[in-house]
Write a structure and sequence with these properties.
Layout lengths: L1 H10 L4 E5 H24 L4 H12 L24 H17 L8 E6 L9 E6 L8
Antiparallel strand pairs: 1-3, 2-3
Helix pairs in contact: 1-4, 2-3, 2-4
Amino acid sequence: MLRNLATSLINARDERIVTTLPKAKELRPFVERAITLSRRAQEVGEASPAGALHLRRQAASFFHAGNIQRAATTGKRGQLPMPRTAGVAALKRLFDELGERYKDRPGGYTRIYKIEPRNGDRAEMVLLELTEREDATA
């Protein structure tokens, strides 16, 4: 579940997701560790390409890779897995954009805002977003 939420947060166009408060509190350190890995890869990238690759592979474990495609007619698993676009896109964005954006920030990459409770069960809902967003109007 955390991998799915982290993938959604990084891939979101406006860099924010709506979720429940307990999920957001669990997700926050999870995402911040991944962003820290991308920051460290930016620092060691030129000096040690192998070290940067190692950090990239560690960060890949924080994201949902994708699902296996099923054949349309037989219902059996296809020969080749489906393209793993969600996790690959999140990893690419993490290392290309977010690592560069947060290179001078020591931590605190996410922010939690409480919003009104969910109608059905009155669960506490929050808006979890990345800080220093380009479209932020605060």
